[in-house]
Amino acid sequence: MSSRTFWVGGNWKMNGSVAAIKELTNTFNAGNVSSDVEVVIGAPFVYVHLLSETLRKDWAVAGENCYVKASGAYTGEISPEMLKDVGAKWVIVGHSERRNILNESDEFTAEKCVKALAAGLKVSLCVGELLEEREAGITQQVVERQLGAVVKALKEEDWANIVIAYEPVWAIGTGKVATPEQAQETHAAIREYLKTAVSPKVAAETRIVYGGSVNAKNCKEAAQKPDVDGFLVGGASLKPEFLDIVNAAQ
Ligand code: PEP
């Protein structure tokens, strides 16, 4: 068992309504979960305030994205400072849906990390390869390219406030979960990369969590892998079974 605190995040994506969030929050608030797990729920911007007011206080709220400026003429964007103002403690940065649907670059993603940390938010940084990249045998190169931009932009001490979410794109929302061995292999390689690219301390202390079709049934086995420090959960975080995933390592 590592000394890294197990971390489980939910990512509601563009789902929810005031009524649905109230119902789900009631379920989560009544759930019996281990106090050894750090839990963070990512909600659409418009619901961050409501969630931060109503969610149990031992869990934190995240925005699902942010912009790179504090304020100004950036119509439609939301700053890290605004997220913090309405109660978010975290922000998800670099989700594959932003990288691949909205064409956000590695450098823009890295800049978001810098600005979010400067505003006092913690960051769940997502990386992961497309199916064709896995099939071409370049998973590690892709993940190192994505991480490399962030490594270049951050100082060593910044990594204390980052959780890396390894999310193979082919496993997100598809029901095709990576095997625990596939997750472990990539997580171990990411840790090895951090050792040389940042420092042995950062490599040893940074949480690396897995995301991609995690559910109550498949989480237990993956949670036993030495380099799997938790999960980032999409679809199943909108259901009561999320509570079982929070307890996966118990
Ligand atoms: C995600 O959105 O980050 C995710 C992992 O989704 P899902 O669990 O639905 O595959």
Automatic annotation (TrEMBL):
Pfam families: TIM. One of its GO terms (molecular function) is triose-phosphate isomerase activity. One of its GO terms (biological process) is glycolytic process. InterPro entries: Aldolase_TIM, TIM_sf, TrioseP_Isoase_bac/euk, Triosephosphate_isomerase, Triosephosphate_isomerase_AS. Pathway: Carbohydrate degradation; glycolysis; D-glyceraldehyde 3-phosphate from glycerone phosphate: step 1/1; Carbohydrate biosynthesis; gluconeogenesis. It catalyses: D-glyceraldehyde 3-phosphate = dihydroxyacetone phosphate. Keywords: Gluconeogenesis, Glycolysis, Isomerase. Its EC number is 5.3.1.1. One of its GO terms (cellular component) is cytosol. Homodimer. Belongs to the triosephosphate isomerase family. NCBIfam families: tim. This is Triosephosphate isomerase. It comes from Coemansia asiatica.
